[in-house]
Amino acid sequence: MKKKNIHAVIFLIFAAFVFGLLSAENCFAARAARNGLLDGTDCEVRGVWVDELDNSEKSTTILNNIVAANLNTVFVVNPPIGSNNGWSNKKQFASFVKLAHRRNLSVHIWVPNLYRKKSGAQSDFRNKKERKSQKKWVLKLLKKYKKYVDGIHFDYIRYNDWESVNKDQKMDAVNQVVGEMTSAVRKKYARMFVTATTISATPTWADFSAEDIPDWFRDWYNANPGNVYATSYSFPTVPGHMKYQQDPVTWIRESNLDAVMPMQYTTSDTAWNQEADSWKSFLTYVGKEPARILMGVGWLEEEGHPEWGYDPGSVARKIAYGRSLGYKGFAIYELNGGAHDQDLVNVLTIDSSENSNAAPLKNSKENCFQ
Questions:
Q1: Whole-angstrom Cα distance, residue 40 to residue 241?
Q2: DSSP codes joined into one string, 273-318
Q3: Cα torsion through 135, 101, 38, 276, rounded to 10
Q4: DSSP 362
Q5: Distance CA 36, CA 27 (A)
Q6: Which of 79, 175, 314, 358 could be bridged to 93 by S-S, CB 3.0 to 4.6 A?
Q7: Is 358 helix (H, G, I), strand (E, B) or coil?
């Protein structure tokens, strides 16, 4: 082969390589542009959690209530798959996601990461083998149900005990598994959205001199004198999720999750509004879009949580306050087919004294997850 021909072949190979890189980059750019949470389109995520599907009658009731309430997104807990745990009945889950998809809902598989093992043993994300198993788990679920779902949602992606921040590198491990799973999903299923739950940002005691508190929070704390974490007690505090080894701001910065959902389910407007204020401040400070936060709104009672309950008017007020801050999404926990659900449907869609004659979901809205 002549020398100039060799040069031509080398040039073509190099050009193909560069084109491939640009194509991949354009693919990810297009993927990001599709996320209406970030691109300013006129949309809103109106999400709701659905837990433990176990019979068709309840599933039908839940689905009908979701549609009647003008909600447009559902996070439904996964069934068992392979050696991995799950809380929904396989048959009911498959039926529900198909029907939800046909009714134009955005469907996301809710994965309880801490409880992956059927044995009931909790996951330790510091273990390399466990992180690999987590990736395989979510990819297997997406492969099986990809025709009907739009994303994967990480939940219980934390440790179970309240401890010093990043004790024994636990926070680092959670950050790592979130990043690895997000990257794996992006690579295999570019159209899928990836979201995660976080424990609330309620101020919680911490020893700033001894605990491995993330640098971004130390900087934010110092840049915001008089913030709630400095004034709630007579000593410094951190967001509650950090004591369970969660750092959702870093997840968004480094893993580029589509959204994080704070688990603030109190009926108190004051506490919830403070949560919404904190998240907007955090993300604005680190240069990320506050729209990446989908504010959790409580609709449940649970033993050990006297601050939770069924308060229709409170749900309407919280959505109104979140919108005033510029949030483009909410995730209600939960619709379960119970006697209280109709009260929620009514307050969301029908003007009344409970919602100041301004039902927050009276009209349908385009979904950002599309």
A1: 29
A2: HHHHHHHHHHHHHTT--GGGB-EEEE-B--TT-TT-B--HHHHHHH
A3: -90
A4: S
A5: 16
A6: 79
A7: coil
